[in-house]
Amino acid sequence: MGAYGLQTHIWNNNWKTALLMCGFPVLLILLTYALFLLFAGLSGAYVGDDPTTGYFIWAAQALADAWPFAIAGAAIWFVIAYFAYQGIIDMATGAQRVERKQEPKLYNLLENLCISRGITMPALRIMETDALNAFATGLHKGNYSITVTRGLMNTLSDEELESVLAHELTHIRNADVRLLVIAVIFVGIFSFVGEMLFHSMRFGGMSSRRSSGRDSGGGQALAIIAALVIIGIAYALAIVIRFALSRRREYLADAGAVELTKNPDAMISALQKISGNAAVSAPSEVREMFIENPHSDFASIFATHPPIEKRIEALMRYAGGRMAAPQAPRARAKTGPWG
Fold first, then answer.
1. Residue 34: is it exposed, middle or buried by C-beta count within 10 angstroms (0-12/13-18/19+)?
2. What is the pLDDT of the chain when averaged over all its residues?
3. Which residues are catalytic?
């Protein structure tokens, strides 16, 4: 069950990060070609003697001229996202950074965990929602951050809250956080284009101009269909990449929390309380970072998180944890989150 600093898992995450960074330009060029092909089919931009392959050749020639600009645009996108991703996530979730004087108990719990293992203290943020959830973000040492919800702070005991913080610290140590952020940055552009096109088809319709000359419309239709297929493939690959991020990371983070706190019962109890109370209004890409993501976009086989019941079972089997007895909800103090 020991997983904190597991080198095989860290290496695997680093390899996937490198693969994403290498594969991104290829998918970007493929997407750019598909957009040129779609434009050619919709506008009738190609005028020539070959209505079948002419649109494809025209799109390839346009791509040959435009691909440096596409790569440059993607580089600008990455630079902006690299420096602005935390602000974007904060805007999407409503999280606010806090310091020790604002939340001393929460801050001290996290600081003590970091001191115990010589870990650089990440920033601390709070989402003002009654939902029970938490997540970590960051790309490198010095800009990591852990976010917890107000509901989590109000509901969990100190030991349970410490376990959740240790879970998120393990995600940082195991490079899970960097991989997820890179996936959000890169995959987001394909998801955006794919969703924009398919929404326009669904609600606004897409129609091509009438063709002239030798093209009776067959070439245009073929170009449009081929472009939509390519865009659909790129969009599907983006989705696959998102769901290919191993659910095993949650088991390992749970194990890492136990190693940090030496308290498997607290981790189990925290998961029990989080279960069924974790729903947060946030983009699906951000929800994949949460300790629990109850909003699976497809069937359970594609879920980004393993069921909490399975995670509790693993903690009981491998870490010697025990299931906590159900308790009546605690009355919340009206003077503040800590009474």
1. buried
2. 80
3. 168
